[in-house]
Design a protein that fits this description.
GO terms for molecular function: DNA binding; DNA-binding transcription factor activity. The chain has 244 residues and is an alpha+beta fold. It contains seven helices and eight strands; from the N terminus they run αααββαβαββαβαββ. Helix 1 crosses helix 3 and helix 2 packs across helix 3. The two termini are 38 Å apart.
C-alpha cells in the first residue's frame, strides 16, 4: 500500500499520518497482529520526522488499534486485546460533566515556576528549568469544593496561552498531541491549613481529602504532577475495581 503525505495541505502532518496509518492497519495484510514497518522506514516513506510519526502512532495506541512493545516494535492490536480501560479515567471537567454536575471556576492562574526537588525528581529535570504551574479553584455554582495545583513537564510544550477552561486532557491532545494515558494516584486525609481553608471557604483544621495524581503519556513519560484538595463534606471519591 502506497503511503503519501501532502506537504502543501493545511491539514497537520501528524493528522494526515494518523489517517494513513488507520487505512494501513485495516488492510488485509496487517490483520491479526502483524508488525508495522519500523519508525525509521515509515518516516522516510512519508517524508516526515520520527517525532511527527510518533504522535500519530501514540494516538492509535491510545485508541487501542496498535500495541507497542519495547524491543519488538509496533503492531496491529488483535481484536481480543482491544480495550477501553485507558479511557476509564477522565479530567475533572469530564468527570463532573458525566455526572451532570455544573462546575464553576472561581480562580484560574497560570505561572512559570522553578521546580523544587520533589518536582524535579518526578520530571527528571534540573531545578533551574522552569515549568508551568496551573492553579484552579473549582466547585458548584454556590461555592468551591476543590483546589488544584498542577505542574507540567516542559516537554509537553505548553505556552501558558492555552484555554485552561476546556477539559485539560482534551486540550493537551488536540493542541500538543500529548495523550495522557496512565494515571497513578495517592489518596489520603489531612486537616486544612490557612491557605486551603480560605480557598475552600471552611475553617482551619477541617477534614480535607488530599489526592496526588501522577499522569504519564503512552510511553510512560511524566507529563503532569497534580495536587487536589477536596472539601470532605462536599465530595466523595469513588473507586471501582473489577476482576478479569
Amino acid at each position: 500500500m502506497k503511503l503519501t503525505i501532502d506537504h502543501k495541505s493545511q491539514v497537520p502532518l501528524h493528522v494526515q499520518a494518523e489517517a494513513l496509518l488507520r487505512k494501513l492497519i485495516e488492510s488485509p495484510e496487517y490483520v491479526g497482529g502483524k508488525l508495522l514497518p519500523n519508525e525509521v522506514e515509515l518516516s522516510k516513506e512519508l517524508g516526515i520526522s520520527r517525532t511527527t510519526l510518533r504522535q500519530s502512532i501514540n494516538k492509535l495506541v491510545y485508541d487501542g488499534l496498535l500495541s507497542r512493545k519495547k524491543g519488538v516494535g509496533t503492531k496491529v492490536a488483535e481484536s481480543k486485546s482491544l480495550s477501553s480501560k485507558s479511557k476509564n479515567w477522565m479530567s475533572f471537567s469530564q468527570e463532573m460533566s458525566a455526572r451532570g454536575i455544573p462546575i464553576r471556576n472561581f480562580e484560574l492562574h497560570v505561572s512559570w515556576v522553578y521546580p523544587d526537588k520533589r518536582l524535579a525528581g518526578f520530571f527528571q529535570i534540573k531545578e533551574d528549568k522552569k515549568i508551568l504551574k496551573l492553579v484552579r479553584l473549582r466547585g458548584r455554582p454556590e461555592g468551591p469544593f476543590v483546589y488544584f495545583e498542577s505542574y507540567f513537564h516542559p516537554n509537553v510544550g505548553l505556552t501558558g496561552e492555552e484555554d485552561y477552561k476546556a477539559p485539560l486532557y482534551e486540550m493537551l491532545e488536540k493542541e500538543h498531541s500529548v495523550v495522557a494515558m496512565v494515571s497513578k494516584e495517592e489518596i489520603s486525609a489531612l486537616l486544612a491549613d490557612e491557605l486551603i481553608a480560605s480557598k475552600l471557604e471552611t475553617s482551619v483544621g477541617s477534614p480535607i481529602l488530599f489526592r496526588k495524581r501522577f499522569v504519564y503519556d503512552i510511553d510512560e513519560r511524566p507529563i503532569e504532577y497534580n495536587l487536589g484538595f477536596y472539601k470532605a463534606d462536599s465530595f466523595v471519591y469513588t473507586v471501582e475495581s473489577r476482576r478479569e
